[in-house]
Amino acid sequence: xxxxxRELVALAGLGGSLSAPPLWAQxxxxxxxxxxKTLFQKVLxxxxxxxxxxxxxxxxxxxxxxxxxFVYERADAxxxxxxxxxxxxxxxxxxxxxxxATVPWRHMITLSFAVPTNRQRVLFFRERQGLxxxxxxxxxxxxxxxxxxxxxxxxNLGPTHPVIxxxxxxxxxxQKQFYLLPVLEAAxxxxxxxxxxxVVKVASVTRDxxxxxxxxxxDNSTGIxxxxxxxxxxxxxxxxMQPYIxxxxxxxxxxLKQAEAAKVGNRIRFGLVAFQDDPAxxxxxxxxxxIFADPNQTAREQFLAAIQGVKxxxxxxxxxxxxxxxxxxxxxxxxxxNNFGGRYIxxxxxxxxxxxxxxxxxxxxxxDQMRAHAQERGVAIYAMHLKTPEGKADHALAEAQxxxxxxxxxxxxxxxxxxxxxxxxxxxxxxxxxxxxVDQVKAPQKTLAAPAAAPAAKGDAVQESVDAVGRAxxxxxxxxxxxxxxxxxxxxxxxxRDVRNREIPAFTVRVLLTKNQLSDLQSTVRRxxxxxxxxxxxxxxxxxxxxxxxxxxxxxxSRLGQGKAKNLEEAGLMGEYLEGLxxxxxxxxxxxxxxxNMSVGQSQSIIDNLKSLVALYQRFHDDVDRWxxxxxxxxxxxxxxxxPIDSLP
Length: 649
Prior knowledge:
Blueprint: E1 42-45, E2 50-51, E3 61-62, E4 68-77, E5 80-86, E6 95-98, E7 102-104, E8 109-113, E9 123-125, H1 128-136, H2 140-154, E10 163-166, E11 179-190, E12 196-203, E13 205-206, E14 229-236, H3 242-261, E15 268-275, E16 289-293, H4 300-308, H5 324-334, E17 342-349, H6 367-375, E18 380-387, H7 395-405, E19 407-408, E20 412-413, E21 415-419, H8 423-442, H9 444-449, H10 461-482, E22 491-495, E23 507-513, H11 515-537, H12 542-552, H13 568-571, H14 592-596, H15 600-612, H16 614-622, E24 641-644
Parallel strand pairs: 14-15, 14-17, 17-18, 18-21
Antiparallel strand pairs: 1-4, 1-7, 2-3, 4-5, 5-6, 8-11, 8-23, 9-10, 11-12, 11-13, 12-22, 15-16, 19-20, 23-24
Helix pairs in contact: 3-4, 3-8, 5-6, 6-7, 8-10, 11-12, 11-15
């Protein structure tokens, strides 16, 4: 979902206490940022920074470059500014840093490299003007390719070249090799082509000291021969689906034989999840969602036996739209995808899915949040939509949903309709897709060898999509295998769009939130949504409702006077951690008159989308492996979660 279309988020019960005392209650608090009441000053250390026992000391403990510290005091010593710093906000200080050896980090906003499906690797420039001139040149794409080859051969371009570094040729997995590209500055510019792009000044931060790693040609020694994959079928098992369940089984019998013949049976594993409806609320249902085969535990014969046990229910569900996302949610959360390089779900249904605002939707996730849920785990969803004659009135809705659900960065929708719901055509499609994935595991080198932007097989949409997504999967696998880190550099400028295709983002934008901030967001937006719902019945009460929400949240209601605040950001209702971010939400900027003049349908659509993010935030909170300490010496309370900015208000 593009940044410009984000909406506010309604949350419910993240499991953290909003009344918990601050970490620094035991001692002094860090210094606040200018004009802020809750945000502390933080700095990043420059290479060569020394942690001294007192201000002005020339000697001290060497620090890793780009370590993150809270600032507790500022003082002058020897005519230079010094900072008393601590690893966390708990009141414990470690020593003094020369301010010249640090970089202020004003926003907890960071970038991570986007999935490298059909985009060129990012180049980092010493100066903003050098970057702007480069991306405006007609030869930018070709020149990028030439420079990347030169970097691959030499490791760098020399100390005076405008380009400092390049994104690694292997994907850097944020979960396995945590890194930060904190945004120090950001500016938007219009290129001479008419495209708008954002240039960002970043610093490189890794858990370990950055090490320059020149690009290397891919060969068997890199571990590519160990590339493996999991393909999990998530299949509709409601009353109309038995013929397609049977056809899936028939197709997979042949595909599994093919895998065995190719001697890759141990490197591509298949799983199966089926969904019906809530048996507590719909008669005749056996389960809401059920994992019949886990790829981590299921070999060939077990998979075939498992799919034999899937039977469509004889009873009708509560609506034509099915609780499809319950099956996807189980597949994503209950299966360990970390053991696989290729991560694929083949989703099969003849009906649309219940959106998060449906009273029958168990996950409360909307289509966009389900896609985000999958992509945070590096899982690609292929949607096979059975366009049966019986579902004609539902086809347009389901197609729009599943195109959004299956959208893959840099590739687009992995959506494959089966016209007329033809069972024979469906079986052939399943066989073709699964066979293409088997071939990818058999020869992953071919996937990498193909040009990133070139179609693998003219006219073969399935093969083309498998190749494009597979390239990203193989690069990610190699990055994890080799422990690839972000490039070694200090401060540099980069463009947030691909140099060949300005529609493709080069980075994923994230905001680092603590649990307290996530909990504050929970309370704040829940009350905002309540206020919005009340104003639908009485538009004239808009300001009164927001004032009430402000009082309940401990905000200043006086900022909500008519004419004083034009939008939510100016009203100060949201937490300070969301104010002034260089990437802005359109909804935060909607003025109050626009909101009150919206039709009921428009405002309800926004509110429904806000509510649907509740479950996604719960998943962020509960994903314990993704909470990170920015400084190893910090307390657990200072851990942060890299929340995608599209998931913030």
